[in-house]
Write a structure and sequence with these properties.
alpha+beta; four-stranded antiparallel beta sheet; 34% helix
Length: 331
């Protein structure tokens, strides 16, 4: 495929050979800008919004040409069953939360253990003072009651820990049901304009079926190709650009910057650069449209392009015979 030539504009005179321009005015002279003709304007973002679940499309508030904002609700797939399941999950969560926060059993067990401990210690103290005051059987029974009460505290604490885990499980189930409901909502993934409506309310959709197409028009991408013999991709990123577009009312200029440089060099010895420019509105309509062609000028101030080997050794203004002599001497 034929690629447009890159033009290098410099402070001094240029000698152009094929697609490569060498700066002969002074070795190492700094180029001011390079101009790339026939650069297409392209979309930065576009989305085919799909159905995420199977079901009947209950509503769809979308039409071609409508401008939407990101996350705007456009419609819904039948979600009545999912909504009912969400309500059940919410009630289960409420019950689990109440159980997890209820520490009555722990407090009761702790109080019972204190009473049992006091009773045992009283009986033991009485027998220590006057042996036989309390039967040995009664002393052992109160000791058992005390130990049992301490185990009941551990049991109550364990039940609270289990209730906390059940609460987390109920919360996870509730979140899963919310996701199920959300998956049946049709939301705009990006801001932009609807250019195609694929489905109508009342039709059945399956996961992956496209419903609407949205394109982002607030900014556009400008694509061009630069000679790798002139510049390295590493020096292009972030460079300011001027873009000239021929519109019905006449040529218009726009500004932006280089946002991407492809490190791969194609078979024509060029690499692709992308710039982004704002797309203003006039009377509620976008000025630029994807598919238009433009001329892109990249500001290369302060960057020296490579100099031809012969030009680097030959004084400015030398004749061809002088250049041949200089070449022989260099050998």
């Amino acid at each position: 495929m034929h690629m447009p030539h890159t033009r290098i504009r410099a402070a001094g005179p240029l000698v152009v050979g094929g697609a490569l321009a060498w700066l002969l005015a002074a070795p190492g002279a700094l180029a001011q800008e390079i101009t790339i003709p026939r650069c297409p304007l392209d979309l930065i973002e576009e989305r085919d919004v799909p159905a995420q679940d199977a079901g009947m499309l209950l509503e769809l508030d979308a039409r071609e040409g409508a401008v939407v904002e990101q996350n705007m609700r456009l419609g819904a797939i039948d979600d009545r069953e999912a909504q009912a399941e969400l309500i059940v999950a919410q009630r289960e969560y409420d019950v689990a939360k109440e159980k997890a926060e209820n520490d009555v059993n722990v407090r009761y067990a702790e109080a019972a253990a204190k009473v049992a401990e006091y009773t045992y210690l009283q009986n033991k103290s009485a027998n220590d003072k006057v042996p036989g005051t309390v039967s040995q059987t009664e002393v052992l029974k109160t000791l058992f009651d005390w130990k049992r009460s301490k185990l009941q505290i551990e049991q109550a604490q364990s039940e609270m820990a289990i209730a906390a885990l059940e609460l987390k499980a109920a919360e996870a189930k509730q979140n899963a049901m919310k996701v199920k409901v959300d998956r049946r909502q049709i939301l705009a993934p990006i801001s932009g304009m609807i250019t195609k409506v694929e489905r109508k309310p009342g039709t059945w959709v399956n996961p992956g079926d496209p419903i609407v197409r949205i394109i982002y028009l607030e900014r556009l991408r400008v694509k061009g190709h630069v000679e790798s013999a002139d510049y390295s991709p590493s020096v292009m990123l972030g460079r300011a650009v001027k873009v000239k577009v021929q519109l019905p009312a006449g040529p218009r200029g726009f500004t932006g910057k280089v946002v991407f440089c492809n490190p791969e060099i194609d078979l024509n010895g060029k690499f692709e650069v992308w710039a982004e420019i704002d797309n203003p509105q006039e009377d509620g309509r976008w000025t630029l449209h994807p598919g238009l062609t433009s001329e892109m000028s990249i500001d290369m101030s302060g960057v020296a392009p490579p100099v031809a080997p012969e030009a680097a050794q030959t004084p400015v203004g030398a004749t061809p015979s002088t250049r041949r002599t200089a070449t022989k001497r260099s050998r």
